[in-house]
Amino acid sequence: MDWKPRHVVNSNCSSIGGTLAPAGLDNAKGLISAWWEIVVTDPKHQDKPRVKAYIEFMKKYMPSVGIDDNTATPGYNNAYMIEQVLKRCGNDLTRENLLKHATSLKDEQPPLFLDGVNVSNSPTDYRAIHNLQICRFDRANWIPVGDMVDLDGIAS
Hints:
Layout: H1 16-23, H2 25-28, E1 32-35, H3 49-61, H4 73-89, H5 95-102, E2 131-137, E3 142-144, E4 149-150
Helix pairs in contact: 4-5
């Protein structure tokens, strides 16, 4: 039949070092995924200070996790966002104040988010990420396909 279906994987399952390499990079060629976070091993991001800071952090605090294993990236970004919320709360760490600041984020960019992807939410819309980049795996890197997708423009 020579059928070649399109394979789409969730970004949480598309770490090059954590998932694709163990399964075989040749087997992963052509996979499609959606990204909002930087792949720190991608050559186009190597010189960014925020990527260098992440790599140093990983070497110091998580030396047993390979840099090509992007499964730690969400935790790093989430920790950054928690820090921002706590700073805004000051000494008032009541539930009400935490919720107020955690649901009023506007155009925050965690350190390992792609350029153009920010965190914004509101008390009536908890969604934090409103755009993402569709990518195709080429046996080595995730390559952007088209323009960034605006999730707010997609009919629900």
